[in-house]
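Bench notes, afternoon.
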Amino acid sequence: MWKSIRIIALLLILLVVAINAWRDQNQNWDRPVTVLLHPINADQRSSTQQYIDQLTIDQFKDIQKYLSSAAAPYRIQPVYFYFQLGRPLQQLPPKVPEQAGLIDVILWSLKFRFYAWKNSMRQEGSPSVTLYLNFYDPQFNRILKHSTALEKGRIGSVNLFASSKQAQQNQIVLVHELLHAFGASDKYDLNTGLPLYPQGYADPHLQPLYPQKRAEIMTGHIPLSADKSRMAENLQQTMVSRQTATEIGWLK
């Protein structure tokens, strides 16, 4: 009996994956992009809940403007992003396995897709992307684990600080993961975290090369020297490179 239940559950997950893969073929940037945001009290603290309770959709307008502006150099037609603040969720998305093999990663991605399907509601429509915002009180969580997003399924699990002081850097992380969901690749060394040259540099032809003034959004860090960088303080210190624009389909 348990074997039959497991098989049925796996078939349901595969069905969800197939539906998402069909829906998420190539993004048509001529159509408006709707991004559904689900806040989650990830550390179950009252301070985190207070931060979530004060969230409004107006707090994401800077991201809308940034993305529209970032797309302008690469497209004749403007790009329109609309953010929708969904209902808070109680359950966290499945955690990304650390130092896992291929099978573990595949199983995690299936679980994440099933989680997204299980937490979807008709009233929230059919968003282009759904991001699960996992908030943590920075007083008790100084360092957050890496966020992640899946292009197939257009879903992301984004770890953020529940603090107004961190709001601008939260925006960088959110945009980074949002672009992952559309196919953008990381442009930093996974071992050192340093931006890769030239694809991870906002101005790879700058003379002298260092220090750079801006960060490429898929690194989030401004190179100060060949072996040193700092995180951008806000979206205004970042840009979307030609390579990233090509990966997500802004540029053909």
